[in-house]
């Protein structure tokens, strides 16, 4: 799979269709921009990250950038609930990827890195908290990190229930986003 603007551009109609059908689960009209994808991945220690999962993978736009950076020995699990996107993700010809047609609520196993595209602001609070609690547990054994992005700062109290975090602004995205790097709270 090659990184290209057209990969994103081709899927604009699919994002719009699914946003109209299910705005709370999509949370956005457009795929993440190259600048946002790169910013999400910039602070990851790729040499020491072998078990990686992306939750809310959409069309795999961030997955493409992850594959470029991750070790040849690392694995990437993709969790997604939308049928249209599952079809696209299943077409990725890459042995390091496993696609899971399953909600991130049911993430299992231990991970070094969890990358999230989930729209916590529009998901129900119950679902969001369940995902955050489970994600923390999945990261504890390996002292891993959760990297996520949001378009507003409105979910910080949810994140701080289970994580310590730092954040960075990315303007070159529609809409501009906040990228959060989160470490699990130990207590
Ligand atoms: C904001 S889009 C992000 C898509 C892509 N990662 C990107 O950056 O363009 C959110 C994605 O999360 C998916 N999603 C929503 N709830 C989910 C859940 N509980 N488990 C897994 N994926 C979910 C949606 O279907 C959608 O593809």
UniProtKB/TrEMBL annotation:
InterPro entries: SAM-dependent_MTases_sf, Small_mtfrase_dom. GO terms for biological process: methylation. One of its GO terms (molecular function) is methyltransferase activity. Transmembrane segments: none annotated. Keywords: Methyltransferase, S-adenosyl-L-methionine, Transferase. CDD domains: AdoMet_MTases (cd02440). Pfam families: MTS. This is Methyltransferase. It comes from Providencia stuartii.
């Amino acid at each position: 799979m090659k990184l290209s603007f057209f990969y994103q551009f081709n899927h604009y109609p699919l994002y719009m269709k699914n946003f109209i059908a299910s705005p709370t689960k999509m949370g956005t009209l457009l795929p993440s921009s190259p600048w946002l994808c790169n910013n999400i991945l910039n602070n990851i220690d790729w040499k020491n990250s072998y078990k990686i999962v992306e939750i809310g993978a959409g069309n795999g736009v961030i997955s493409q950038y992850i594959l470029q950076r991750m070790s040849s020995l690392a694995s990437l699990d993709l969790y997604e609930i939308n049928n249209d996107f599952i079809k696209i993700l299943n077409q990725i010809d890459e042995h390091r990827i496993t696609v899971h047609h399953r909600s991130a609520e049911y993430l299992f196993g231990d991970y070094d890195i969890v990358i999230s595209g989930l729209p916590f602001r529009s998901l129900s609070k119950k679902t969001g908290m369940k995902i955050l609690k489970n994600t923390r547990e999945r990261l504890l054994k390996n002292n891993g990190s959760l990297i996520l992005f949001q378009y507003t700062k409105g979910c910080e109290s949810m994140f701080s229930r289970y994580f310590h975090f730092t954040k960075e602004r990315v303007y070159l995205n529609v809409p501009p986003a906040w990228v959060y790097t989160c470490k699990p709270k130990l207590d």
